[in-house]
Structure prediction request, 489 residues.
Amino acid sequence: MERSKERDGGEGVAEQELGSGPRGLKLRREIGLWSAVSLIAGCMIGSGIFMTPQRVLIYMGSPGASLVVWAACGFLATLGALCYAELGALIPESGGDYTYILRTFGSLPGFLVIYTSVLVSRPATIAAVSLSFAEYTVAPFYPGCSSLPKVVVKGVAATGILLLMLLNCWSARLATMLTNVCTMAKVLSLLIIVVGGFVVLGQGHGRTEALLHAFHNTTHQAGHISIAFYQGLWSFDGWNSLNFVMEELRNPHQNLVWAVMIAMPLVTGLYILVNISYLLVLSPSEILSSDAMAVSWGNRVLGAWAWLVPVAVVLSTFGSTNGVFFSGSRVCYVSGREGHMPQLLSMVHVHRLTPAPALMLTAAVALVLIIPGNFSTIVNFLSLITWLNYGTTISCLLYLRMKEKNLPRPYKIPTFIPVIMLLVSVYLVLVPIVDNPQMEFLYIFLFLLSGFPVYFLFVYFRCQPKCLQMATLHFQLLLEVAPTTKNVD
Prediction:
């Protein structure tokens, strides 16, 4: 193997393989430990902590129960991240859920995961967070308006998606730098909210009555509790982001575990303290009636500096979208490399070494989903698919424990952790369907069923029209992209 130094606008070292044939391109290992922490924390801290506390409180009925849900969500997300860390050490390839299910259960289950991920889950996540970003960006230009113009909001969301697509196509290093900067800004903004709440308490103006009667009116309905967990866990979604970019992580076996152990307690602690700060400043009725709870908090505490809150939300959502873009496009790229998506998606730019076709497809689907998009509906729709994938992925870990006991395991967690996560996944998937069946659940089921004929037609029997092969060739020349090899140590 030989490392050839290719510079392009200050880019780092491009890694290439020499063999008897042509050189094989690889993605660069650009992500160090702190960039890994920033990626995990940056993907998690998005619109959720600014928008979902209200919805958790609605479904749980009491402030105390909502705080318990937030703590439990952080605990579950940490357990899930530890499970994924062991899987990442066992199978050190990019792709996350898709790669682990593909390597464990085979081609068809792997295809169904990527079918939902590429066409729905990842683009829908980008669409939901982009809509939140657009709402907070547009709001200052329409003071006093109870309803923002939908065309303007969706136009701003689409513009943000296109800008991030161009940035990620241009340079992976710039994308990780943006994630680092935005993560620092997010953590700072959450610390301001935390400190502001306790300053109000110290001045004797804190609303402690909600905390004194913390569990009054708590719901006991299993369906409501599961939906509250959906909303809370949405704010933690992104804890597995690093597993999607394993082939770009430096010293992956060590940095993956350390990044999880640093990022998860940091975000969980901040989320709980931020929710306490909201309850100290705003009454439960004010929280329930506010369309922008963080802005209401800022108006009450920061006075003339209240504009900092919407700016912080804009930076937070923009950085989170960038993190999802960065990791989500890699899933699309890996699936193309494995033959489950068109070959074009597995190619990278010959000079910039970024998966440009995968980024473009992710952006295109996200733009389509913005048109009918609604934040709350997308969250509930996504959560069912997400936890179905999580449960299947964690079952891979249990299966490998039983069937492949001799596999080298650089990192291993106690067996009860994946068992707990599997039971929680089953609960979060089944209870909402049984307790409160909705048409969206039927749509998900039908969409999954549609993946079977697509798999057998295009993957199993390899029906590839000549026009598709010609289109791949033309796009390869147009986009200046080429096939890649795996970057696995």
User: Anything to note?
Assistant: The mean pLDDT is 83. Residues 108 and 455 are 7 Å apart (CA to CA). The first strand starts at residue 2 and ends at 4.
